[in-house]
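# nightly structure sweep
# worker-07 picked up a monomer target from the shared queue
# config: single-sequence mode, recycle default, output format = structure tokens
# input follows
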Amino acid sequence: MVHLIRNPRFSGMVHPDDIYHAVQVDKAKIVAPHYVEVPGGKLIPQYAPTVMGTSLEYDPSKNCYGNFMSYKFQANNNCYNYSCNVATNSFAQPGRKHGFFIEGAPTGEQVVKGARMDGIVLVGKADMTLDHLRKEAANFTAGHFVVLLISEADASVRWSGDYHWVRCDDNKTYASWSQKDGGDQVTNFDFAGNLIVDPSASNWTVNQGPLIQNNPDDIVISYQFYAYMYVPFGKIDII
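# output follows
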């Protein structure tokens, strides 16, 4: 039996042991100041009202009125919140507002399904290049593109899998992208410290450090490009 000495760190998913962002079914177990009930009677903890972003420029201090910054609600918004330009202050999950919950290890198909329920449009999968996206961009207006990355589960190191989203900040050249890794700060660098100009070719490798009891080796995981999607302005609904 493989035992963890601490929980792994997720970019998009909520760890089952995270009492601050875990879904509740018992109204007596109150942690957050507010809960949003979704179809199926499940309760989603929310730490402040939802704020919709109005600007897509890379400007973390003003984006969503500062809700992604540490002086406000940085820890309660993840990569999905930032990519959607909506600070729900609930560590939002694809499809959750509409009663869809990813069970077990997340797959690209599951995450896309949840995102589409939220109003996000699938544009192209892993075989789509950034140049192809630029050619398709004329068919989309009043919104922005995002990239979905998937990290597959690895039972040998108790890695249950995760997803990550990256947001386009420039609807002219499509060569400026940014991201928010879980509850961390917003950045326009990838995980290796390089500017994100093409998210499908950026470095999305994460060293989680030692995780397994009696094993000093670092656990290294990676996220793979899965799809381009489109977020229509003002037409998505997430929690």
